[in-house]
Amino acid sequence: MVNCQNLCQVKIDLIKFFRNNVSVKLKYFYIILIFIISILLSCVAYNSVEKDIQNKTESTETGKAAGNESSVEPEGLSILKEAYPDIDFTASYDEEMNDWKILIDTGTRSGELYWCGGRFLPADKLADKDSYWKLFYKYSEEIPDPADFSPEEVERIRKFSSPENRREGASSPQFFYDLIYDCESRRAVEQHIIQISFLGKRSNVHERIKEPLAVIEKQILEAAKTDEEVKNFVDTLSRADSYNWREISDSGNRSFHSMGIAVDVLPRGWGQKNIYWAWRRDIDPENWMLLPLDRRWMPPRQVIRIFENNGFIWGGKWMIWDNMHFEYRPEVILYSKILNAAPEK
Ligand SMILES: [Zn+2]
Questions:
Q1: Distance in Å, CA 307 to ligand 1 centroid
Q2: Which of 47, 65, 119, 236 has its Cα between 20 and 30 A from that of 29?
Q3: Quick count: other Cβ atoms within 10 Å of Cβ 168?
Q4: Does residue 262 lie in a domain region?
Q5: Could you give the number of structural domains in the chain?
Q6: 6 C-alpha to ligand 1 centroid (Å)
Q7: 185 shares a domain with 113
Q8: pLDDT per residue as tens digits for the range 276-332
Q9: Contact between residue 227 and residue 300 where contact means Cβ atoms under 8 Å apart
Q10: What's the domain range around 250?
């Protein structure tokens, strides 16, 4: 490309050449000629540089448009569409709020929430987004083994489970669930609570999880025919508790039991084993998280797998373990499946 530095060099070289090789009159003639030529070349160079800047700007703008967040729906939305196939999710970009607005329509209720990195917040909570977790998180494939915990991880669990953090830390983004389960108030949600029989035990659940629980029951009973451990689980089950309007212990968060979409499976006597982190914390306040897995009661692996295959996560895989607890979170199961299938970077 022609540039100013090259032009100056050419000019100097030509002047030197003519100074040494031609007569005085001609020298003046050539100097004027060189001057005119250099002006012409400068114009060409200027046009060329200007065009180059223009091209770069255009390509930057085109690139921006192609990669602009406003042109592609948030990726996680397809996970929600798959997790809740009977619910309509319509996304439109809100230029003013600079975020996706998601219209959620269950057929009987509808509402709009902002995507906000997967938090699903109403407009008036957007400024306070750090106070809310995201709907999606990586649910572990394996049961985390405390034998593998580093001192830093233990410290992190201590902090996370501290009453201060549970009281004042971030909370679950309730708004999405309030909308799809109509559970903003006790009065509202109780219109959707129905009584079912699960493995021979009476349970009050949200009507939306009646179907998945029926499939789970069928599959567990089928497995019990050939698997002694599963048969023993069914035979010794004493309770399957679900709906209970309450807050999660130590925190202002509402439990998924308050929506009727979590089920606690309690066996008849769990012997010397431990079943819930906070009960163990009362005995061993410092090191409850290090309690070896074989000292915790667990449902059979096959039972955990059947629940997971039908959209439930198991509390035994949480750092603050709750081994009787299953919770209907199909979006978390699908999201984690995608993450776990992706090759490690
Ligand atoms: Zn529970």
A1: 14
A2: 47
A3: 12
A4: yes
A5: 3
A6: 77
A7: no
A8: 999 999 999 999 999 999 999 999 999 999 999 999 999 999 999 999 999 999 999
A9: yes
A10: 146-341
